[in-house]
User: Which sequence fits this backbone?
């Protein structure tokens, strides 16, 4: 699909059907995650793929935003693997965010819905899922087929024109 068309049609799905997600589609989304650019190509992303009901229930203890998805990706970065800029700042959050965006777009290309979730109790998630201490959760990405009555949020199609958020030669 043409990139801009794909980007326009993708929306945050907040209601999923019970239809299971095919293994090959999950693998394609993880391939997209591996293709995402990261600082110095360190690839510090660490992704937990959750489809077991008992583990999904643990995730629901940490957020109200799981939306009944049959799969949830927990996207983290490894503090020990991310590139650190000259000011001493690790860019793991940036890397994990780019990875998450690539995953969302591949999911949309495959006819699946996602919703980027940043509203979760990270400390509780680390404890519930026994996430290693050097892995930092950045996003939850519920994944699945949108329910028949799922629809974009009311502001989804409202976009500011480029002239409102860009400037030229102002340096």
Assistant:
């Amino acid at each position: 699909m043409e990139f801009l068309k794909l980007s326009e049609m993708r929306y945050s799905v907040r209601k999923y059907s019970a239809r299971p997600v095919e293994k090959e589609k999950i693998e394609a989304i993880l391939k997209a995650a591996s293709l995402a650019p990261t600082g110095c190509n360190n690839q510090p992303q660490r992704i937990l793929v959750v489809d077991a009901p008992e583990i999904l229930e643990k995730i629901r203890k940490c957020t109200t935003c799981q939306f009944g998805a049959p799969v949830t990706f927990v996207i983290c970065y490894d503090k020990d693997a991310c590139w650190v800029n000259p000011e001493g700042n690790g860019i793991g959050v940036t890397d994990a965010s780019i990875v998450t965006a690539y995953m969302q777009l591949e999911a949309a290309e495959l006819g699946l819905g996602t919703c980027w979730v940043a509203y979760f109790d990270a400390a509780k998630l680390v404890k519930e899922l026994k996430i290693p201490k050097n892995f930092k959760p950045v996003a939850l990405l519920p994944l699945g087929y949108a329910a028949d009555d799922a629809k974009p949020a009311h502001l989804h199609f409202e976009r500011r024109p480029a002239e409102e958020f860009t400037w030229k030669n102002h340096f």
In short: The chain has a mean pLDDT of 95.
